[in-house]
Each structure stands twice: as C-alpha cells, then as structure tokens.
Design goal:
This protein is an alpha+beta fold and 287 residues long. The protein has 6 helices and 13 strands.
Amino acid sequence: MRVATWNVNSVKQRVPRLLPWLDQRRPDVVCLQETKLSDAAFAELLGAELAERGYEFALAGQAQWNGVAILSRVGLADVVVGVDGAPGFPDPEARAVAATCGGVRVHSLYVPNGRVPDSDHYRYKLAWLAALRDVVKDGPSAAMLCGDMNIAPADADVFDPAAYIGQTHVTPPERAALAELQGLGLHDVVRERWPDERVFTYWDYRAGMFHQDLGMRIDLVLATAPVAGRVAAAWVDRHARKGTGPSDHAPVIVDLDEAPDGDIGPVVPPPSSRGPRKGSVKLPQAK
C-alpha cells in the first residue's frame, strides 16, 4: 500500500499538478492539507476526476483557509472530522480528518503554524497538539499520522539552525510537544530510514530557496510500530516541487510491504545544490 501526504497550498490552484501526479505515482491513500475549499466546492471540483481514478474521499473543508482531505482506493471507514477536545482560534478550524484505509487508521493533519513564539496562536498550537496526543493515545494500534506538522523535529531538519533563531517551528516547546506525541510509540519513518541524509519537504517561494535547497522538513509520516515495521520505502517526491505552479511543499511517499519504485533514496530527484555555508543566508521574512 502506497501512502502519501502533501500540503498542496490550495487544491484549486494545484489541480494541474495534482491529477497528473496521482496518475504518475498511483498512491493508494493520499492525505492533503491546505485544500482551502469547502467540502461542497472540493467535491464539485474534483469529485468526478477522483471517482474516475477509483478514489473515495473524506473531507474537513474550510473556504479560503486550512482544509484537509483523505483520498483512498483501499477503503474509507469510520471517518472522524477534527480532533476531539482541540481548541479553536477562536472557533474550530479544519485541520484534521481521520479514516481507516486498508486496515490502517490514517490521520491527515495540518497543525497550526504558531506564527510567533509565545503568541496566542503559538499557545493554540501547543494545546492543539496536546489534544491530538490524547486522541492518538486511545486509538488503534495500526495508525499513521500524515501531514504538515509545522515543526522541524531536530536541527538536522532545517538548512541552518542559526537562521531560525527566534522563529516558530524549531522552538523547544514545539519540539517537546512533537516528541511527546512520538513518545506514544510513533516512528518518524523517513528519518529512521535515512538518519544521516539532508531531507527537506518545504522551501519558501521567495529568494530562490528551493533552487538553493534551503528548506525544512516539516511534513512528516509518523507510524505506530505495527505499521513502521512494514515500511519498504520512504521518500520525498521533490520532483513535484519543481516546474510551473508548484506548492511550496513536496509530497512524502511511504510504501508498505512492497516498493514499486524500489528503495530509491530519501529525496527524488536529489537536489543539485547542497546550500551555502551556515550563517550566510537569512530567512526571507527575517530580511
């Protein structure tokens, strides 16, 4: 079973990229984030195209902002929208949907950004993650948490830790919240498979960050032990970030039991640039 997660940063804008990608990679389960459409608008836009490809879908939509989805060709049962007990900002946001696909409980997640450390949105992020942890703790033994976690788990997951000082995504409380979630027995399958490799999933649109490979690894697949033990390949589809009209995120693909493309590496294709020396580049928003 091939499972993928992709923050598409507006599914409406990404249709010319999404549909050919589905045909090329042929994932069995796809978790999407930042769909930015109501459920009705999503179904009208993509319902027929997805049905033609054999996908059912579960949605937690929100016009203009947020929004998550699960597409599945291997069943879609026991759909739950949202995270029980999670706070809103101030109202509930469309950030989570879960379903059982091919015997695995799959969560499509778009964790709050946090915006600025110690802000109200930052505290909302931490409270939201705490609620998610409680839900996962009581969930099935075979589970995958897929999505834009908006946290780089370690310094190795950003191009230069010094560039992120004072920014969200890397602060100790955020990383501790993610570690507590993983402490439930979840495996970061990409990092475990490629412990020493440079792997990013997000590159800012500005300042040529993608072409210089100045990115972050914030899109994760966390799997319980029964699922992690089935992983045959785990990689970032960097090709989907190239070309015309891409999202600023690349898909993460995880193959269970067998790998149609082989165990082909952590990032496909590998970046041509290894980035400049540390300390020489500032984040676009920090300039």
